[in-house]
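Section 3.1: Structural characterization of target chains.
Under the original work plan, the team committed to producing a structural model for every single-chain target entering the pipeline before any wet-lab resources were allocated. The record below documents one such target. The sequence was received from the expression subgroup and is listed exactly as submitted; it comprises 136 residues.
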Amino acid sequence: MGDIAPPFSSMDLEGKQVRLKDYKGKGVLINFWASWCNPCVNELPLLNEAYKLAGVDMLAINVGEKSGAVQKFVELYELEFPIVMDSDLKIKQAYQVVGMPLTLLIDEEGTIIDRHEGELTEMEDILNLMNRIKQE
């Protein structure tokens, strides 16, 4: 913890450029996932509900899948947060993602303040994470 989050820039599912630096001064929750990862599939609907409740910025980074498959998944689960495509795995490498899901909390200064490896199963835990970066 306490490391500066590696900068990245990639396209979201809508084809818009997403840069980590766009979140400077706000804080953001970043979740690395893939549709073939069962714990990710279990966790994403919970994250979606927490995202709607908490009002914090969140980026879900899809690791290595084609946008068509990702789009189907997003529609099936009615995910509302931005989905960032990491098709060349550069973001995964920069963040040293070994297993998924991986959830990171980045504060308003761009510092990684929490790293949770594995599935988040409790809404309360997710909201507690999000509240740590919520702007007053």
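The radius of gyration is 13 Å.
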